[in-house]
Write a structure and sequence with these properties.
single chain; alpha+beta; 5-stranded mixed barrel; 4-stranded antiparallel sheet; 18 strands
Length: about 350
């Protein structure tokens, strides 16, 4: 098995911590290591064949944080379908070898359990399961609340089973970011999981799927050996789409996707609210865009940049703020000012 880590993105839901020059994967949000460094560390004992796929503008960040690690550089950010297509074509591995794809910006509390899930999925699902040869395997997170910010994996319950401790099923469909009532209904359905964006498949399986459902193999394949030609190929990609939309939804309808859910203490830190919970602080948070006016209370905190430097302020009393640039309002987090200040300190230091 070889691993491909996708590192990039704007991280707009964590402004002003995350910014285009240093997005979420490259920040030490929870511990002293960045999310990217933590993702690589979790693969120890699973595989030492790891490649980072990232936008060319983040090459220096990756080299600084992970000296010597192999990289595959995209000319432009074109979402996960293009990144995965480039990795499947450019990283020369046997066609029957299992390729693990995972984002760089997630956290996992139970790393040993996660490693066993990856090994079991690679050996017992990606190589063929439930009557599907060379399936595309997607790993999901056990649902514990009716979240509307995640996509959901809906299994075919009649055809599943337990494989090496993993409860797996052929995937019936993806449901993208449902409304609250639908999320409540999905939560009650057995086997349903949140879409974690973690995939395993044989190299030949994903190349065949990309060829069938997209034009990426045809457009990128002849260009991967030439940086100049690859630049032009990326510029010609009209729509930047995720692998879910480009491949997985259609593949699920055609019966070639297998899902397995896991309970490993996962978070994608996709909002200020989830970040506050991860660092042990109270409250909920949201981003206020430039030009908007927001009312703050005395127990709120405001995270903003002043002169290019991150800072956190505690309003002395209720009042209004007009945002001149994106800022974060953390509702009810005032009692945990010290915890938030430590977060700001970690993310304000030199690039690690």
């Amino acid at each position: 098995m070889y691993a491909v880590i996708l590192a990039g993105g704007g991280g707009t839901r964590l402004h002003p911590l995350s910014r285009p020059e240093q997005p979420k994967p490259f920040l030490p949000l929870v511990t002293g290591e960045t999310l990217l460094q933590g993702t690589v560390a979790r693969l120890a004992g699973v595989t030492d064949d790891v490649t980072i796929v990232t936008d060319r503008r983040y090459e220096r960040l990756v080299r600084t944080q992970l000296p010597g690690i192999p990289m595959l550089l995209e000319p432009l950010g074109r979402n996960t379908a293009a990144a995965i297509a480039l990795a499947a074509l450019a990283i020369d591995r046997p066609d029957d070898e299992v390729m693990l794809v995972l984002p760089a910006d997630q956290t996992v509390e139970r790393g040993l359990v996660f490693a066993e899930v990856l090994r079991a999925a690679a050996e017992s699902l990606a190589t063929g399961a439930f009557g599907i040869d060379d399936p595309l395997v997607t790993l999901g997170i056990r649902v514990d609340r009716p979240a509307t910010e995640y996509g959901y994996l809906v299994p075919d319950l009649a055809r599943g089973g337990v494989v090496r401790g993993l409860t797996g099923y052929p995937l019936q469909r993806f449901t993208e970011k449902p409304k609250p009532a639908e999320a409540e209904d999905l939560m009650q359905q057995p086997g349903v999981a949140w879409n974690a964006g973690i995939f395993l498949w044989r190299r030949r399986a994903i190349v065949a799927a990309l060829r069938r459902y997209t034009g990426l193999v045809q457009s990128l394949g002849p260009m991967v050996s030439s940086p100049q030609m690859l630049d032009r190929a990326y510029e010609s990609i009209q729509r930047a789409v995720s692998i879910d939309y480009a491949v997985m939804e259609s593949a699920a309808r055609n019966g070639s996707v297998v899902m397995a859910s896991m309970d490993v203490g996962w978070s994608d830190l996709g909002s200020w609210t989830s970040l506050l919970a991860a660092i042990g602080a109270r409250g909920s948070g949201s981003v206020v865009q430039a030009g908007e006016t927001v009312t703050v209370e005395a127990d709120d905190l405001v995270v903003r940049r002043v002169g290019g430097h991150l800072g956190v302020i505690a309003p002395p009393e209720r009042g209004s703020i007009i945002a001149t640039q994106p800022l974060a309002v953390l509702r009810g987090s005032g009692p945990d000012l010290a915890i938030v200040e430590e977060l700001i300190k970690r993310c304000s230091g030199p690039e690690v």
